[in-house]
Design brief:
- This protein is of the alpha+beta class.
- It has 2 helices and 20 strands.
- Helix 1 packs antiparallel against helix 2.
- It is elongated, with a radius of gyration of 27 Å.
Length: about 260
């Protein structure tokens, strides 16, 4: 059987994976804090018929070898942690991270998740939580009788409010951000959350604006960093590559048909 059939088939499989990734990027174009995914490819094993440097005569060697590849495979999918655009919402519980860093939340199983989704909420107990109800860590609990519109978060993460009957603001919490040596190694688990892996390294905590951390922008949200135009271009390239590989399969099939008809 012709090797090119399987080689081209691996190309079609790879481009299908590429289209799947592009589709996920486009579907999350309005997801707060979403980071674009990119597919990295690598070539498969090579069949070596002649190795470069093989002696040709007593005085010469072959300058190049004879090799043929077996196609392509997906090597990695990587999140691109470039800054997303900031959108002014005017909502007192919204915040955006400008620069490096993640917020930490407590998950149901007691482990930590990390996110850049700053669309936070205030629950019935006065705790600052995510849209899924996960508590921000370190915990922030607003005092009873606080004035909602007085909630302020400074660029270095200090959280202050006014209590009814008192005009002086009171600090009720201090935000912490966390960064990683290799944020691309974090494991995405959905709900705009990421978890630590051996590849990401341990989280490094600090105050916003200090020790390499980004700053906090109150009443803003960080939008997705997906570029619709770039993704559409990537989709066109992936579609054409898929077509070219399908043409290679059709050509291989035609060659097999010619060989099969030799007896006639």
């Amino acid at each position: 059987m012709m090797r090119s059939l399987y080689t081209a088939a691996s190309g079609m499989t790879g481009q299908q994976y590429n289209i799947d990734t592009i589709s996920n990027n486009l579907s999350n174009v309005n997801t707060t804090g979403f980071k674009q995914n990119r597919v990295d490819f690598e070539d498969l094993l090579y069949q070596t018929t002649r190795t470069a440097g093989t002696p040709a005569t007593e005085l010469t060697v072959t300058p190049v070898g004879v090799q043929v590849g077996h196609g392509v495979k997906v090597a990695a999918t990587q999140k691109m942690y470039t800054q997303g655009a900031l959108q002014n919402t005017g909502n007192v519980s919204d915040l955006a991270i400008q620069g490096e860093g993640f917020m930490r939340v407590m998950l149901i199983d007691g482990t930590y998740g990390y996110t850049r989704d700053g669309a936070l909420k205030i629950d019935s107990n006065g705790q600052v939580v995510t849209s899924q109800g996960y508590r921000l860590m370190p915990e922030v609990v607003l005092p009873e009788g606080f004035v909602r519109d007085s909630l302020t978060i400074s660029q270095d993460g200090r959280i202050t409010v006014k209590i009814a009957g008192n005009d002086d603001p009171v600090q009720v919490g201090q935000m912490q951000l966390f960064r990683f040596v290799n944020p691309a190694g974090l494991n995405a688990i959905g709900e705009n959350l990421l978890k630590v892996t051996n590849a990401s390294g341990d989280p490094i905590g600090g105050r916003p604006g200090f020790d390499g951390m980004g700053t906090v922008q109150h009443k803003f949200l960080e939008m997705s960093n997906v570029s619709v135009v770039q993704e559409m271009v990537n989709m066109i390239v992936a579609q054409r590559a898929y077509e070219l590989n399908s043409k290679a399969i059709q050509t291989s099939d035609s060659m097999l048909q010619i060989a099969n008809n030799l007896k006639r």
